[in-house]
Design a protein that fits this description.
The chain is an alpha+beta fold. Among the domains are: 212-272, no CATH class; 277-367, Elongation Factor Tu (Ef-tu), domain 3, CATH 2.40.30; 404-537, Nuclear Transport Factor 2, Chain: A. The protein has 15 helices and 13 strands. It has helices at residues 6-23, 40-55, 64-82, 94-99, 101-104, 116-130, 134-154, 160-166, 179-200, 212-219, 244-252, 258-264, 404-407, 434-447, 472-488; strands at 232-237, 277-280, 289-292, 316-320, 328-337, 344-348, 364-367, 378-383, 411-413, 431-433, 493-504, 514-523, 529-537. The strands form four sheets. A six-stranded antiparallel β-sheet has the order 2-7-4-5-6-3, with no helix packed on it. The protein has a three-stranded antiparallel β-sheet with strand order 11-12-13, covered by helices on one side. Strand 12 and strand 13 (529-537) form a beta hairpin. Helix 7 (134-154) runs antiparallel to helix 9. The longest helix has 22 residues, at 179-200. 19% of the residues are buried.
């Protein structure tokens, strides 16, 4: 049975705290779990009062039956702890946090006056999440997607098309799917949807950007170190054997400004790592995967350090062997560790052709110390020059020669009649644009029932099936108004030129009656008109 891992729980809690702080919503103990253990004495002595407050929230909770069970279980837990002779705080365990999550999710933090210690914790947590930026939310989404996909693999519900699109290799199913598994996956997916909403409205994060140079100035212990402020930067190559001081002298005119370059690139000692460490494969490469041992046993440096501690997602590594002599640069997209043996399975970006790297040809990867730079990569030189804000909507190259009305039809993913993604012969996702995308957009608007998409409640055609009691004329009016609204709300279309909605019964007198709809839609930005026809069940 699947459960939300502690790592995913913390990410969801961070997301919830950010959204609540943004919206000014009430905070509860589950939002800042560090306070829970501090409330043990209060809860032990005043649970009957607090219990009544939680019970008042049952009917408004998203899972009322779950909360009722949680209240009963926590009441029994308290009774057992009151008679215990052990001098311990039972709420200091993370297990207690997850076990009675429903209770903590319904006790407001301000239900009693905060102590100074609790106030400091709340202020620190609110400050932390208020400084979240795009990277923080991408990290949250990555963590949640990994657990969601892992659960899907484990219960045999993984999607081959999805795995192919994101270049991931599923593990074998171990269990049969249960309602609990699906419920956990839905909770995780809801959280991912919230992250996507935040990322789609990224302007809300602009005020939370932390200037790394201002942060460094405020934290510097040496007042003689002058750290400037910068607005932009340029990418350059670090020459072999060149230090940050020489780089600063060459581009910034002052060797002492090497620290500004280090801050701009997030570098930490030793700052430059030209040698790296060679890690040999323990099996031949396969498609986009490579296998490494748990520790490096081939006589290189850091022999006692686990290989898992030298690797991370999005890390750039170099691939090489006796026959593949020129180092090939790849990025790590996923890391899996095999239980017991500790063997590591790396998934890399790029073509699925890693079978070129064989263990009998000394195939290996080379990794570099985290937060370092070398002559194989670009480095950012900060600049005080402000970049002009002259961004504009660019037309994709494949629409450059098209008419203006086709350019306005946007670019989407192509979907077939079964609702599945369409792939190109090369395995890429097929794009839909121009007239084809206009037709696809109208088809989706007419096929989706209004209110069917929870995140887009105003998208889709009104459902009139089974509503003959209101009269055929009223049903025709509902359909006409709904069609006009869907087209008028989309900037890709100018207007509906003609619309005919007719009610009909099969001539045989058997089968379901339908509304036959024909219309002509004028595209925005031109005179082209699309003829559309379809039927709707009455």
């Amino acid at each position: 049975m699947a459960t939300i891992s502690s790592g995913s729980y913390k990410k969801i809690a961070d997301l919830s705290l950010f959204l609540k702080q943004t919206n000014g919503d009430e905070l509860v103990l589950s939002d800042i779990s560090q306070i829970i253990s501090l409330r043990w004495t209060y809860l032990k002595n005043n649970w009957d009062f607090v219990k009544s407050l939680v019970e008042d929230r049952v009917e408004d909770y998203n899972e009322p039956d779950f909360l009722r069970i949680q209240i009963e279980d926590f009441t029994d837990f308290l009774e057992a702890q009151r008679s215990s002779t052990k001098n311990i705080n039972p709420l200091s365990s993370n297990e207690t946090l997850f076990r009675y999550y429903g209770v903590w999710d319904n006790i407001p933090i301000n239900s009693i006056e905060l102590t100074n210690q609790e106030r400091d914790i709340v202020d620190a947590e609110l400050l932390r999440v208020s400084n979240f930026n795009r990277k923080d939310f991408l990290d949250i989404r990555s963590q949640l997607e990994q657990q969601r996909d892992g659960i899907a693999d484990n219960i045999g519900l993984t999607d081959p098309d999805y795995n192919s699109a994101v270049k991931r290799s599923p593990t074998d199913a171990q269990l049969s799917a249960s309602i609990t598994d699906l419920s956990v996956m839905q909770k995780i997916q809801d959280a991912i949807g919230s992250v996507d909403f935040v990322l789609a409205n990224i302007f809300s994060l602009e005020n939370n950007f932390i200037d790394p140079f201002a942060l460094a100035r405020s934290n510097a212990n040496n007042p003689e170190i002058e750290i400037a402020s910068y607005q932009s930067g340029n990418l350059v190559r670090l020459n072999q054997g060149e230090s940050l001081q020489l780089l600063a002298r060459r581009y910034l005119g002052d060797a002492d400004k090497w620290i500004d370059i280090a801050i701009a690139n997030g570098l930490k000692p030793p700052y430059i790592d030209e040698i790296g460490e060679k890690l040999f494969l323990i099996a031949n490469g396969d498609k986009n995967q490579m296998n490494l041992a748990n520790t490096n046993t081939m006589g290189e440096l850091n022999i006692d350090k686990l290989n898992i501690d030298k690797l991370y997602i999005n890390q750039i590594i170099l691939l090489q062997s006796d026959t593949q002599k020129f180092p090939e640069q790849r990025k790590i997209t996923n890391i899996k560790q095999v239980p017991v043996s500790g063997e590591l399975v790396l998934e890399l970006d790029g073509l699925s052709d890693l079978d070129r790297y064989r263990i009998d040809e000394s195939a290996h990867i080379r990794v570099f110390k985290p937060n370092t730079i070398n002559s194989s990569f670009f480095i950012l030189i900060p600049s005080e020059e402000v970049l002009p804000d002259d961004r504009r909507e660019e037309v994709p190259f494949f629409l450059q020669g098209k008419a203006e009305d086709e350019k306005k039809q946007k670019v989407d993913l192509a979907i077939d009649n079964d609702g599945d993604l369409i792939y190109t012969p090369a395995g890429d996702l097929q794009l839909s644009f121009g007239i084809a995308n206009a037709i696809q957009a109208i088809k989706f608007k007419m096929q989706v029932k209004l209110g069917e998409l929870r995140k887009h409640p105003t998208f889709g055609l009104v459902n009139v099936t089974g509503r003959k009691n209101i009269g055929i004329g009223a049903m025709r009016t509902l359909l006409t108004d709904s069609i006009n609204e869907q087209i008028s709300l989309d900037p890709r279309f100018d207007r509906i030129e003609n619309l005919d909605v007719r009610y009909g019964v099969p001539s045989t007198g058997q089968g379901a009656s339908v509304f036959a709809i024909t219309m002509q839609v004028r595209l925005a930005g031109g005179t082209q008109v699309l003829p559309i026809s379809f039927t709707v069940a009455a």
